[in-house]
Amino acid sequence: MTRLARMRARLLRVWDSLRPTLRRENVARLVIAFALAFALWAWVEATNDPETQRTISNIPVVPQGLSNDFVVTSDLPTVTVRIQGAQSRVQALESGSIQATVDLSDVREPGIYTRRVRVQLPGRLQLRQVIPPEVTLQVDRLAERSDVPVEVVVTNELPPNLELLSTSANPPTVTIRGPEQRVNLVARVSAPIQITGQTETVRESVTLVPVDQNGITVQGVTVEPSTASVTAQLRIRGQVRRVIPTIVGADRLAPGYELAGPPTVFPSDEVVVEGPESALAAIPYLTTTPIDVSGWSESRILWDVPIDTSRLPAGVRVEPATVNVSVQVRRAEETRTLQGIPIAPMNVRPGTTVDLSPSSVDVEFSGPSDVLDRIQPGDVLAFVDLENADVGIYQLPVRVTVPPNVRFERVTPEIVQVTVRAATPPAPSPTP
User: Fold this and answer.
1) Tens of pLDDT, residues 240-249
2) Is 146-236 CATH 3.30.450.20?
3) Relative to the CA of 385, which of 122, 135, 356, 365 has its CA 20 to 30 Å away?
């Protein structure tokens, strides 16, 4: 107590010594001096580091306060913010230091909620605007389902003589978790596997995919465990042979029509033949029973055309016994040539004349016979484009236009010499 008393006495003596100098005028001068100093500092700061504004886009909005029993299922929105502050601070600001949030602490049921966006900025920066000021989010309850079956799916087409005997997955069932609406869409979990090069047993670890009844992937759902061990048992049977369609009557199609190409078997032109090795070695390929195209004027698809087995050795079996055949028919085309088509100069510069060497070309074109029969020389245009060329000699390509439904093939010659001359002024008329 004695020490505190002595300190208090000293402070009182110091105050008594300063009191005479702290008159009202002096206090006023002191306050004014401080105000002027602050104003000067503010002016210097404003001059060297002026206020400015900046707009920053694509700021992600983060939901806060949502119960662990719920999850946001809609895409998280973004906002644009407009800020203001000292130029040095505004320019140095990174978008990652801006926090945009919405409060979902009051959510108790699944649904669609609209909330005002709250933005937090670093110190000494001001928020001027948030665009949009509110965002809408969809919230769903988290759900879980166990014992969802795993289905092995072979994603590639097997060779015709490779038979898939069985498939299995370990584990056979899994647990899925996610938003309730999406979990309810899951019908099964797919275990996709590709079989290439193997002929007996395939064992592979694959990633599991939740799918709906139509086999479409359901997004936003997790699978536990996420992988499964898949086993596929295979067997090779017989040998593979090509099937070549047999066409008759191709020379008796409707007048003016022809086959566009060889008939094709689809979706695959291969079938499996089984039997004694010696018999199979004597079969290079198979054919269909004859397909009569007499009188056809359009393309057709023939379903389930039988394979011709009449000449196969005894004991040979074919699977499948029928194939699908596509026969493409088009209008018969011919090639014609018109000779001596005059060349027309285009875009001739005023005050000039043009000489062409040669002045005509031969044009070859193709198309349906009945269309070509109606074409006259005047229906074909051959020209060179001078593009307002100056006086001189040019080597220019010949361009050709032909009527509709006709295909241009070639022009002979392709390049001609074009001489552009200044027009000769008319001779003056004699004076009387």
Assistant:
1) 999 999 999 9
2) no
3) 365
Q: What homologous superfamily is domain 239-331 in, according to CATH? A: YbbR-like domain (2.170.120.40)
Q: Which three-class secondary structure string do you get for 72-115? A: ECCCCCEEEEEEEEEHHHHHHCCHHHCEEEEECCCCCCCEEEEE
285 contacts 241 by C-beta, under 8 angstroms: yes
C-alpha to C-alpha distance for 77 and 177, rounded to whole angstroms: 24
- Please tell me the CATH code under which domain 51-132 is placed: 2.170.120.30
Q: Tell me how far apart the alpha carbons of residues 307 and 272 are, in angstroms, rounded to a whole number.
A: 12
Q: 220-226 — which CB contacts under 8 Å span 24+ positions? A: 220/73, 220/178, 220/179, 220/182, 221/176, 221/177, 221/178, 221/179, 221/182, 221/183, 221/186, 222/176, 222/177, 222/178, 223/174, 223/175, 223/176, 223/189, 224/174, 224/175, 224/176, 224/177, 225/171, 225/174
pTM, two decimal places: 0.56
The per-residue DSSP string of 207-225 comes to E-EEE-TTS-B-TT-EEES
What residues pair up with 292 in beta bridges, in sequence order?
A: 248
